[in-house]
């Protein structure tokens, strides 16, 4: 049986994931804010507001502080001549093998946050679905994209 993939994501990925989780948590903040506004217009129990606030801070603790290091520790990948090996997950660790013969195209993608940190995601598309290797440094992402594209082209020729 083959061992787990060996290549880790850059350490900076944890910081980027923390920022992404923080920005996403701002949407969750709408719940206690909305309830707080409704308190001004209706006679609602105040303890529910405090419960929403406590749940919100617990949510921030879990998604911003706790999960990014665990996610980073479990995310590994390896690009071999005949396949791409991905391992990821926090509670449930998934392992995916993508045969090079199934790769249709490979993209790099940057959102505003990744662009700010000079990072990119590599997306590998097959006929069935797409797979993502997240938050790689820009140089590594471009090199990986080109390498996978070259290996996929060689696999098609065979």
TrEMBL record:
Transmembrane segments: 21-41, 47-67
UniProt xrefs under InterPro entries: YdbS-like_PH
Membrane as UniProt keyword: yes
Domain YdbS-like PH: 72-148
Keywords: Membrane, Transmembrane, Transmembrane helix
PANTHER family: UPF0699 TRANSMEMBRANE PROTEIN YDBS, UPF0699 TRANSMEMBRANE PROTEIN YDBT
Protein name, as recorded: PH domain-containing protein
Source species of the chain: Alkalihalophilus sp. As8PL
